[in-house]
Amino acid sequence: MTSNSNTPLASQIDHTLLEQGAPQDFVVNFAKDAVRFGFRTACVRAERIPWILETLQNTDVRPCAAVGYRLLVVKPTRDHYRSEEMMPRYNIELEEKKAEITAVMDALDAKKMSSPVEFDITFNIFRLLRGEPSYVEKEAQTLVTFCRTLGRERNRAVVVKLLAENYLLQPDRRFHVWEAIRSAGADFVITSSDYLPAGVSIEEVREMRGRLGPSIGIKAAGGVSQFNYQSFLDAGATRIGSSMGVEIMDFSDR
What we know:
The protein has about 250 residues and is an alpha/beta fold.
């Protein structure tokens, strides 16, 4: 099976399904949509990667594993949002993230897939805001090095994207996180997880591009739809993460 569409727009979209509890047949159909439109990736929680590999095999659509999302289950509304309740949900230890990454690589090897693989990995913002700023550099470097090393060992191309979760951070801490991600050698910085009351803004992406320059990709995610995707690309995003990939493509054809 090959992708039916490989347009420049489709190749910039991570078609995303992160809802906890989605049944397997629903996830498989989601992956079929990714193939039908020729998206860059089909992005699911790490433990669901085995469900989509048969659909993606022999296509140009890459599997993308969301790592460290175990405690991100419900998106709070603004009325019910409490930062002190949200922060511990990012307190996932490095070893757990490494285990998820390894399991994804094992699943690809078992399927004998030669496809590159992409990882969208949460940052331990909890440790940062608890007063451990140096942990940001350590975690970014450790995760990127681990992914690159595992990729070389398995003879597989790996793309590493680290989640900044801008909504939770004051400007000075945002800049710190963005720079830590770039300095660690990640391929992309991700703006948002879509598990917070507000997603990414166009102004954020424009500021990120201005500060980071052209040396790293920016993935705009969290509230990106058919009505605003082009504005994010114009502001400097090089990848779009959205559960509305099909709607974006249908809208772009009008």
